[in-house]
């Protein structure tokens, strides 16, 4: 699996919409989203249209229009977005759960390559489905705050968001080890 530019732009824009919601911005213009990530506006408009049609973002027309998340960030799994934009996560068609294609292997049930690629597909899916947009927004905002960077899309009159150390309840079925990855390590026991 390789994330396309379209997939990357979709994820970056959703993260920025999540940050905007966190700082109290109700709507963000596509030009602002494009400028924040140095993305071509016309291309981003197409990506946002696809996200809108799938129900992940909502749009408002007019002079003060733009985009916002259509559902809570905690309800948007990163894997859902990758599959929507880039298709199946499987590196080869014979291990795909959503777009299975038989290979030309004479014995699929005993094919070592298929077994290896199934493990790859399952590992990718487990990671992408484990984290929600809210998790990524939290890590992003925490890193920005700890680096002294202002959060994008903040209203000029708002104060800084303070970090508090609090225990958060993590699902032990999906977060089994503290060394599962960078996002998991950064999420730790903190919340914003």
Give the N-to-C terminal Cα separation. Answer: 32 Å
Number of strands: 4
What's the Cα radius of gyration?
19 Å
Strand order of the largest sheet: 1-2
Overall spatial form: globular
Taking the sheet with the most strands, its summary is: 2 strands, antiparallel
Task: Please explain how this structure is put together.
- The protein has helices at residues 5-22, 30-37, 41-53, 78-86, 112-130, 133-146, 182-187, and strands spanning 57-60, 66-69, 164-165, 190-191.
- The chain is mainly alpha-helical.
- Strands 1-2 form a two-stranded antiparallel ribbon. It has a two-stranded antiparallel sheet with strand order 3-4.
- The longest helix is centred in the middle third of the chain and has 19 residues, at 112-130.
- The protein starts with a helix and ends with a strand.
Can you describe this structure in just a few lines?
This protein is mainly alpha-helical. It has helices spanning 5-22, 30-37, 41-53, 78-86, 112-130, 133-146, 182-187, and strands spanning 57-60, 66-69, 164-165, 190-191.
Provide key terms for this protein.
45% helix, two-stranded antiparallel ribbon, 192 residues, globular, 7 helices, mainly alpha
In terms of topology, how is this protein built?
Elements: H1 5-22, H2 30-37, H3 41-53, E1 57-60, E2 66-69, H4 78-86, H5 112-130, H6 133-146, E3 164-165, H7 182-187, E4 190-191
Antiparallel strand pairs: 1-2, 3-4
């Amino acid at each position: 699996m390789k994330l396309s530019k379209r997939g990357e732009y979709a994820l970056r824009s959703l993260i920025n919409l999540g940050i905007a919601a966190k700082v109290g911005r109700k709507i963000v213009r596509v030009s602002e989203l494009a400028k924040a990530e140095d993305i071509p506006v016309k291309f981003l408009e197409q990506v946002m249209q696809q996200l809108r049609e799938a129900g992940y973002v909502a749009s408002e027309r007019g002079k003060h229009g733009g985009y916002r998340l259509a559902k809570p960030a905690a309800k948007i799994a990163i894997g859902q977005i990758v599959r929507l934009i880039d298709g199946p996560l499987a590196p080869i068609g014979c291990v795909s759960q959503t777009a299975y294609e038989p290979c030309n292997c004479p014995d699929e049930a005993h094919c070592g390559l298929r077994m290896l690629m199934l493990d790859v597909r399952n590992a990718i899916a487990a990671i992408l489905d484990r984290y929600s947009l809210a998790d990524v927004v939290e890590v992003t905002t925490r890193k920005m705050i700890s680096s002294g960077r202002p959060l994008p899309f903040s209203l000029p009159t708002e104060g800084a968001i303070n970090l508090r150390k609090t225990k958060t309840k993590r699902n032990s079925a999906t977060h089994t080890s503290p060394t599962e990855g960078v996002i998991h390590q950064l999420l730790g026991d903190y919340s914003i």
